[in-house]
Specification:
The complex is a heterodimer of chains A (74) and B (627). Chain A is low in regular secondary structure and 74 residues long. Chain A is built from one helix and three strands, in the order E-E-H-E. In chain A, 8% of the residues lie in helices and 9% in strands. In chain A, strands 1-2 form a two-stranded antiparallel sheet. Chain A is flat, with a radius of gyration of 20 Å. Chain A starts with 18 loop residues before the first strand and ends in an 18-residue tail after the last strand. In chain B, strands 2-1-3-4-5-6-7 form a seven-stranded mixed beta sheet, sandwiched between helices. The two termini of chain B are 45 Å apart. The chains are: A little secondary structure (74), B alpha/beta (627). Chains A and B meet through helix 1 and strand 3 of A and strand 19, strand 20, strand 21, helix 25 and helix 27 of B.
Chain lengths: 74, 627
């Protein structure tokens, strides 16, 4: 069995309302959160947050092929 | 099936119709890559009335003669009437205005790209005109298909007139008893009567929709009743042209038969013009509606639909679902091309979800209104609408108001975003030249374009054409027909009545250099989109965190990271354009209105958002598979 073979397994979890970021699905996620930690200080001005927001450099954004994420059990 | 609700003065025994064979013809330069819906539909209607009908996609024969690629080049050239000019001498003989080819000198700069490496473009056009066209017409007129035929019906849209007149002239010469009937968009309004008056080879014209008028006209011919007084018919009487206004347009489109395209496939196959992958790759034209529900309320200023054809009518969802199934089986094709002016929004609830649920794998083209929501674009994509042509036309809300488009620039951009996200191809253009626009309108558009290179670019940017029936046509002070008409048609034709395209003459027009930056940025957008590595602007989000990878401009790539309310602000502006006040409400007051304004300006300054008057829209697309 591999991790990709999920068709015969069920999680058995009960249905429930999941809150993500303190809000029910459908709300603006995270709207209730305050500023989180990061490079910019919590009380940084809008302009300061923008100044520190950019990291230059090209990236490979394409998803990994599906066969690259199949992990065989030991 | 009969479609004649009006009292018919011609009492015809249905058996008599069997003695009136009809050939319906589509001449160059109709597209060769799919069948003519005009022939397919009218042929079936006439068969339903009992007339022996054959269709003749004669455009295919000309394409096979001159080469399909060259044919497509000529057919795609609508701005100048070069395709009409090719048939002018054969259509009008000694009356043709340009037998020596002055057109080629006077418009050389616009035509020079019609050549290829092997031959000079002038020589090729002249040879086509002097050798290929006569030989093609001779062979076509001598075809046994005309034996015993009583009526030749020509459908004509855009550059099909001269070729149709040329064939009709030969047919009338060889078979004087044959009756020629013309119709199609080129015969709408006052154009039809003028062609009947001015062109000897045109016996009769159907003006407006032909579904009812054409079979009723044929019944008059069968019964020997004069066609005068028949709604939607123009004819000559004692040297004068008599035209009767069309009857109200057909309302119940479900009553129409499914078009029959068998002759197209047989002929195209025989001529080697079908795609190598077989008939499955041929788009099947369909008509699910007529008219324009938006134009009924607000006629876009450049749109050439006229009053009677504007009335919106649509087939029922069930009928359309059935027609897709029927046509797919008949022609072994899963590709469909809607000829509708605008999609029926009711289909988004009643038809497209059914196609998606049934798991059919159609590839459908539709023209749509541009202000579709994300959910509506998703519905289209799931139903197999893989190509759309929205009326975007401009990325300036101010210019869009001048056009009466009923959409905002931010909505247009949002459509491009979600179409890209859901994998729907978008065909669109940028238009300019509208009365009341300013240089600033175009400077602002040109400044936005470099930020949009991760979205599908326009096919091009160009000055608006003045088309008959459009509101701009009514605002044109001189109404001068497009210049090349006079190289095609004799001066006995009153082009003020017969032409469809007119020279741009609107008052208060900006100088051409006002659009230079827009045209340049449009070209740069196309180049960027065509690059080996397509530009990207993608965001990942989680509550309180957004990362945006900006890969739009080689050498300037990078990643933005925003946390807290700024991240939520960016995510809140992604689904659709919203106002700053709405952003404030959705963020629960975590940013003041002043901070929101400042943040929107900062995002826009980095090209991560567009601000369109009161609206803000994030430009990045969500990462991951479409959902």
């Amino acid at each position: 069995m591999t991790m990709s073979d999920t068709t015969k397994r069920t999680t058995g979890r009960r249905s429930t309302v999941v809150l993500l970021g303190g809000l029910a699905a459908g709300a603006v996620l995270g709207a209730a959160l305050g500023v989180t930690t990061g490079d910019a200080p919590r009380d940084a001005s809008v302009q300061e947050q923008f100044r520190s927001a950019f990291t230059p450099g090209a990236a490979q954004t394409e998803s990994l092929p599906i066969n690259r994420i199949v992990v065989t059990e030991p | 099936m009969p479609l004649a609700p009006l009292p018919n003065p011609a009492r015809v025994d249905p058996a008599d119709r069997a003695g009136w064979p009809v050939v319906l013809v589509s001449m160059p330069f109709m597209d060769i890559d799919w069948p003519s819906i005009q022939l397919g539909l009218l042929g079936e209607i006439l068969r339903g009335h009992g007339f022996p009908v054959r269709t003749l996609h004669a455009n295919l024969d000309f394409a096979a003669r001159i080469g399909a690629d060259y044919y497509r080049q000529l057919a795609g050239r609508q701005a100048r009437l070069i395709a009409e000019w090719l048939f002018s001498v054969e259509a009008f003989g000694p009356e043709a205005p340009d037998p020596d080819g002055r057109l080629l000198d006077d418009f050389a700069t616009e035509l020079a790209d019609l050549g290829d490496d092997s031959r000079d473009w002038r020589a090729r056009l002249l040879e086509t005109r002097r050798v290929e066209v006569p030989a093609y017409l001779d062979r076509l007129a001598a075809d046994p298909v005309w034996d015993g035929v009583k009526v030749a019906g020509f459908t004509s849209t855009f550059q099909q007139n001269a070729a149709s007149f040329a064939l009709a002239r030969r047919l009338k010469r060889d078979r004087p008893e044959l009756i020629t009937v013309f119709g199609g968009a080129n015969f709408d309004g006052e154009m039809g009567p003028e062609w009947v008056r001015a062109v000897e080879s045109v016996d009769l014209a159907v003006v407006g929709e032909a579904d009812t008028a054409f079979p009723r006209l044929l019944d008059r011919l069968v019964a020997g009743v004069p066609p005068t007084g028949e709604p939607g018919v123009a004819c000559r009487l004692d040297g004068e042209v008599v035209t009767t206004p069309p009857a109200p347009p057909l309302r119940q489109l479900d009553d129409l038969p499914a078009p029959d395209y068998a002759e197209y496939f047989e002929r195209a196959g025989r001529l080697g013009l079908l795609p190598r992958t077989g008939p499955g790759a041929v788009p099947i034209p369909f008509e699910s509606s007529r008219g324009c529900w938006w134009g009924e309320k607000h006629h876009c200023t450049f749109c050439g639909l006229n009053g009677s054809t504007m009335m919106f009518r649509a087939k029922s969802p069930q009928r359309m679902a059935d027609e897709f199934v029927t046509q797919a089986r008949r022609y072994h094709s899963f590709r469909f091309h809607g000829v509708d002016n605008i999609v029926d929004m009711g289909y988004l609830k009643d038809l497209f979800p059914v196609l998606a649920a049934e798991g059919v794998t159609y590839q459908i083209f539709y023209e749509v209104k541009a202000n579709l929501t994300r959910a509506q674009v998703r519905t289209l994509a799931q139903a197999g609408i893989t190509q759309i042509q929205p009326g975007i036309e401009s990325l300036s809300s101010r210019v869009l108001r001048l056009m009466r488009k009923g959409s905002r620039a931010a909505q247009n951009i949002n459509l491009l975003r979600w179409a890209a996200y859901y994998g729907v191809e978008v065909g669109w253009n940028l238009l300019y030249g509208f009365p009341g626009e300013t240089e600033q309108d175009y400077a602002q558009q040109a400044a936005v374009l470099p930020h949009l290179v991760h979205l599908q670019p326009p096919t091009g940017a160009g000055r608006v054409w003045i088309e008959r029936f459009s509101p701009l046509f009514g605002q044109s002070p001189s109404r001068t027909p497009e210049a090349t008409y006079r190289y095609v048609y004799p001066d006995t034709v009153d082009l003020g009545k017969a032409a469809y395209f007119f020279e741009y003459d609107l008052p208060g027009a900006l100088p051409p250099d006002a659009y230079t930056a827009l045209v340049k940025e449009t070209a740069a957008w196309s180049d960027a989109w065509s690059a080996a590595r397509r530009p990207t602007l993608t965001y990942w989000s989680s509550p309180g965190l957004v990362q945006i990878y900006d890969g739009r401009h080689p050498g300037a790539e990078g990643t933005y990271t925003f946390e807290g309310p700024l991240a939520d602000l960016y995510a809140a502006c992604s689904d659709r354009p919203i106002t700053a006040a709405a952003v404030h409400d959705r963020l629960g007051g975590s940013l003041t209105p002043a901070q929101i304004r400042e943040a929107l300006d900062e995002f826009a300054g980095r090209g991560l958002m567009v601000l369109d008057e009161s609206l803000a829209l994030s430009l990045a697309l969500p990462a991951g598979p479409p959902r």
